[in-house]
Design a protein that fits this description.
Blueprint lengths: L7 E7 L4 H14 L3 E7 L8 H7 L3 E4 L6 H11 L4 E5 L3 E3 L4 H11 L3 E10 L14 E4 L10 E4 L9 E3 L7 E5 H7 L11 H11 L3 E13 L11 H16 L2 H10 L6 H23 L6 H12 L7
Parallel strand pairs: 1-2, 1-4, 2-3, 6-11
Antiparallel strand pairs: 4-10, 5-11, 6-10, 7-8, 9-11
Helix pairs in contact: 6-7, 7-8, 7-9
Length: 318
């Protein structure tokens, strides 16, 4: 039983993360106490770790997928299962440095509930020490690359974005994304994606086109242990990462732009496998497109212009 009624749910999806799951959960409890409802979603881990016991030790809720479905489906499931107005999606290998950082998240969302937020992201080495790399401050999206592998890819921003509590950014990045639950349900969140990869581009473009924005919370920094060369715990990640780019293009772009994406995918070695996956799931993607069109308020050109302005180091306004 919570001593403080939580206003924020931390949705943590993972597969085979070992001790890092408990370190992440303990970090939330050490800095926020019981003021955050923690929802652990075990994406069919097969490393023989007792993750349910971790949830029990730290007063977290626990859900285990019967088969591995990937982070996009798992996070969308967590969005539906959250009981609070606000949600933060976290990876399972994070570190927290400030007491009551959750209150900054809640206060920020209350000031502008139609926005998708990310925090400052401190890059860490395995074990949790700082890697020496610059802090990530949100991202923009590469739209002009001539290869499919480089196109529609988030590109870290490491330049300061003013002294205010928040700053507008084209795209969230860093494995910690906060949002008013109702706003993300309104945009249909991760719907249309499959397995692994590309989540940030879709949810960020959707936030802008649905009439909202993406913003960096300058006053919260969260450490993230990045994988580096270590592979993600999901199979065929490259194939599904490319599929998710096609799905994103279909959901948020015009017919000519989607046709161009289908042409550009031919630049990757596994183009046939990617297109086969797309054809097998096109019905789901088309449903996601129709659902988003019902709430879309801005044309894609709006996002493309602000993204380019950001990449050109011009000030952007919503």
């Amino acid at each position: 039983m919570f001593l403080i009624e939580p206003e924020l749910t931390a949705v943590i999806c993972f597969a085979n993360e070992g001790d890092e799951v408990e370190r992440t959960v303990r970090g939330i409890r050490d800095t926020c106490g019981d003021a955050v409802d923690i929802l652990l979603i075990n994406d069919a881990s097969d490393d023989d770790r007792d993750y349910e016991a971790v949830a029990d030790r730290h007063g977290a809720r626990y859900l285990e997928n019967s088969e591995r479905i990937g982070p996009a489906h798992s996070r969308h499931k967590g969005l539906r299962w959250a009981k609070t107005d606000n949600v933060i999606f976290l990876d399972a290998h994070m570190r927290f440095y400030a007491q009551n950082w959750h209150q900054v998240i809640n206060d920020t969302i209350s000031c502008d509930p139609e926005a998708l937020y990310c925090t400052r992201s401190k890059p860490l080495k395995p074990g949790g020490d700082w890697s020496g790399a610059p802090t990530g401050l949100g991202a923009s999206i590469v739209m002009d690359n001539q290869t499919f592998g480089g196109w529609l890819k988030p590109d870290w921003n490491i330049r300061a974005l003013g002294d205010g509590p928040t700053a507008y950014i084209p795209c969230v990045l860093g494995g910690c994304y906060a949002v008013r639950r109702q706003f993300m349900l309104h945009t249909e969140g991760y719907r249309g994606l499959h397995r692994y990869g590309g989540e940030e581009s879709l949810i960020s473009i959707k936030a802008w086109l649905a009439g909202g924005s993406c913003q960096l919370i300058n006053d919260v920094e969260i450490g993230h242990i990045y994988r580096g060369g270590k592979p993600a715990p999901w199979r065929d990640t490259v194939k599904y990462f490319h599929f998710n780019k096609l799905a994103t293009a279909r959901i948020v772009m015009t017919e000519p732009e989607f046709a161009a994406a289908m042409e550009l995918v031919e630049t990757v070695e596994n183009a046939k496998a990617v297109k086969d996956v797309f054809r097998s799931r096109q019905g789901f993607v088309d449903q996601a497109r129709l659902g988003f069109k019902k709430v879309q308020q801005r044309p894609l050109r709006y996002f493309l212009d602000l993204n380019e302005a950001f990449r050109s180091r011009e000030k952007i306004e919503p």
